[in-house]
Amino acid sequence: MQGSGTTRDARGDWRPAEPIALPPTIAWPPRPRAIARWLLGFPGYLWPMNALWLATTLATWAWLTPDLATMRQFEAGWIAAILLRNLALVSLLFGGLHLYFNVLRLQGDERRFSTQPMARGSARFLFRDQVRDNMARTLGVGVPTITAWEAVTWWLFANGHVGVVGPETGALAFWAWFAFLLLAAPVIHAVHFYLVHRLLHWKPLYRHVHSTHHLNVEVGPWSGLAMHPVEQVLYFSTVVVQWLLALHPVNALFQIHVAAFSPALGHSGFEKLMIGRRLGVDSGNYFHYLHHRYFECNYGGSLAPLDKLFGTFHDGSAEAQARMRARMRARHG
């Protein structure tokens, strides 16, 4: 199945029937009811994905993270425990989605952007296999990078260099700021991602660093964190924002988890993860799929309207395609 009111061309490329819609938060005049539906509705800003990442964060902090007092010194034991925990979480999520979409094919080609297969026998990829390449880069580079940023973060909190770990300074103000930073974390991620991503498309960095990720034209869940080591370091530097703002370590861990987990669904190659026949979880990944296909558009995420502001937004329509080509002709002569 292809989805109602949608098209698939002769090459096997599929696109949604409607252009990509940006969040109602940027509409003028303001539309309070639309914003409330977007924030609280299902699917929406909070439900289900950000709520899932938050639940994972709270469980990870409560049961799978050493006590802060243990992390006042960098020691191999607690760092290794965090590394193994991150390997397990990433393998479960990314591997589970790959199994669902690409091995068992439980959704078939419904809402799949392209029926072109993941590359095999290609010298562009490690082991001449795109999936194995993506897995190696995710587990062998991405997870250690996540762990390194996390270890530095816990050391900073444990030694009092950032934040405070309890509401001693005033319970109401503490918990209000704590909740606000949780709500803001996906937007912080989107803004940071746009800025870093535009930097990575600077020619020297693109040629030597970001081109590794763009080897993935057709994408799957493991493609999300398949990056050059330098890009991994820059990408997860989003947690630095929480070093400056957060009072509690959970805010920093949630920021890391949003960055670590959202690329799996965002690179799934499908517009929605279908739950039953009618309900689908929209990851907004057609927005980013267009970037993988054309390179010159959609550098950020649909949460932050920076592409709209700077003229690089592509909503999937023929009009947006013409604007992008005109912009490319003007840039490259």
Give a description of the structure.
The chain is mainly α and 333 residues long. The chain has one domain. Helix content is 55%, strand content 4%. Strands 1-2 form a two-stranded antiparallel sheet. The chain has a two-stranded antiparallel sheet with strand order 3-4. Helix 2 packs across helix 9, helix 3 runs antiparallel to helix 4 and helix 3 runs parallel beside helix 9. It is globular and about 60 Å long. The relative contact order is 0.14. The N terminus is likely disordered.
* Structural class by helix and strand composition: mainly alpha
Mean pLDDT rating: 90
SSE run = EEHHHHHHHHHEEHHH
Task: Tell me the strand order in the biggest sheet.
Answer: 1-2
- The percent range for strand residues is under 5%
What's the total number of strands? 4
Q: Give the % helix.
A: 55-70%
What's the number of structural domains?
Answer: 1
Shape field: globular
Count of alpha and pi helical runs? 12
Largest sheet report: 2 strands, antiparallel
Q: Which regions are unreliable across 5 or more consecutive residues at pLDDT < 50? A: 1-5
How are the secondary structure elements laid out?
Blueprint: E1 7-8, E2 14-15, H1 32-40, H2 49-63, H3 76-103, H4 130-158, H5 171-200, H6 203-214, H7 229-235, H8 239-245, H9 249-266, E3 272-275, E4 279-282, H10 285-294, H11 306-309, H12 318-332
Antiparallel strand pairs: 1-2, 3-4
Give a quick summary of the entry.
The protein is mainly α and 333 residues long.
Spell out the key features of this protein.
single chain; 333 residues; mainly alpha; two-stranded antiparallel ribbon
